[in-house]
Request: fold
Amino acid sequence: VFIILTTAHDPLTVNVGFSILAGITTWSAIPALSEIFVKAGLKGMDLSKRTKHIIPESMGMVAGLIYLVTMFVFIPFPFMKWFTGSNDGDLQELKLLTFPNLKLAELLSALLSIQSMVFLGFADDVLDIRWRFKMPLPAIASIPLLMVYWVHLGVTHIVVPIPLRPILGQLIDLGVLYYVYMGMVAIFCTHSINIMAGINGVEVGQSLVIACSIAINDMIFLQSASSGAPAIETHLFSLYFILPFIGVSLGLLIHNWYPSKVFIGDTYCYFAGMTFAVVGILAHYSKTLLLFFIPQIFNFLLSAPQLFRLVPCPRHRVPRYNRQTNLMEPSRVVLDEEDDLDIEFSNSKQDSKVGSRQSAPGRSASSAFLSSAGATAQDADDSHMKPSSSAVGEGSNLPSTTTLLQDFRPFKDSKLKRSGWYCIKLLEALGLTHVRYDAKTGKRPLEMTNLTILNLILLKAGPMSERNLTISVMVVQFCCSLVAFVIRHRLVAFVYDV
Ligand code: UD1
Ligand code: MG
Reply:
């Protein structure tokens, strides 16, 4: 690192050296600071371990601070040629007249936005801020950035895909709506990482895959762009921000990987999300950025019924840890109470009722998920949830369209909101959740698996260890990045002139 820093002539090489240094510093600082965090009350319980583990929380603060210090020290390097090279005072003055003030403003506003989110994340870790208050804050934190964007780039039009051009024309100017869109990108990037969380290493793991995808995308552009092209500046800018982020994230992941010795806290989630939003906005590739967020977009859409309280949302939606098997299983949320009569009814009529309920319309799909999820022993004992192979496989037992529609009609005794009912039914039909119904009528939903991508992976692939679940998420994220690259660099030719 010392050799890189002393011999480097271009800012990118210096940035690489700083990134390695930042990574090593993060890796070595975390164990040294862990005890201080615990003493200050910044600690959390690992929900998915046999023994109750209390470990330091908010270690994203260490990564965030080291990142910010690295970037502060790096600020002069991209502007070095304006400071050096001439001892002639007049020439130097002339040079300063061409100084790219707006580039410096971009850099500073980006750091201000990231710093604000590190601060907000830490406040959230300490104060547990309510969702309704913290939800819009990333958009507010991005105002300095949007202001510089307005002065410098000011581009508010989008290029219309070729097939739609006969109707909409070549460009659409979104005006102020473009700024609203960018504010939403900042909100989405920060919160989407925070809600795909809760198992060792998953937040940093997914962020690292996204960051590496952004860096590779930048390098592809830098390789292919002709010298002097404006895209070079913006993609270099993006790399300056992403490489140190990769450095500190790697340093943090070593300690956060299963079995975690530290938690990263909301601080890291917000820090990571805002860093991505900043490069997406200022390097002007927010659409490509969103392609790298395909799993997060899916997780957000899947979570929406719980986030917007159409169905209950418990404090933690992380998968359930099974102490007996040491494996993770889909966690469930209670939708309605199971009354005594229900349980009695279920016990006494178990044998006779099971057959008819299993082949009841609309039940077959959910039963199939349970079987593929490798239901828990306790679940398997719930005979009304047993999979019905006959109902799934045989055409004669398939429900008719009329009966399926009847099944969608809200059940009058259910405590669910009408909108919540339709959501559950739709998600169940799509195989995205498993719903358990009351034993008596087989129609009143009692509980369902929480609506997150982590629970969905477990529902489809069966129980697995916490470490394998994190690896699965990273593999999904990696595959989605490959799809994003194919869309961005191959399929794009069909819809845009490139
Ligand atoms: C978000 C999720 C919540 C999830 C939580 C896990 C939504 C709306 N909220 O809430 O469902 O349960 O993140 O981070 O989707 N923890 C572990 N192991 C880990 C990481 C965290 O057990 O590897 C636990 C620890 O007890 C830690 C706590 O999660 O203290 C942190 O939760 P926090 O970040 O405060 O939750 P939220 O972001 O509010
Ligand atoms: Mg969190």
User: Anything to note?
Assistant: The CA atoms of residues 212 and 226 lie 23 Å apart. The pocket of magnesium ion (ligand 2) is lined by residues 194, 197, 266, 269 (CB under 6 Å). The chain has a mean pLDDT of 84. The beta strands are 43-46, 53-56, 157-159, 171-173, 320-322, 327-329, 332-334, 435-437, 445-449.
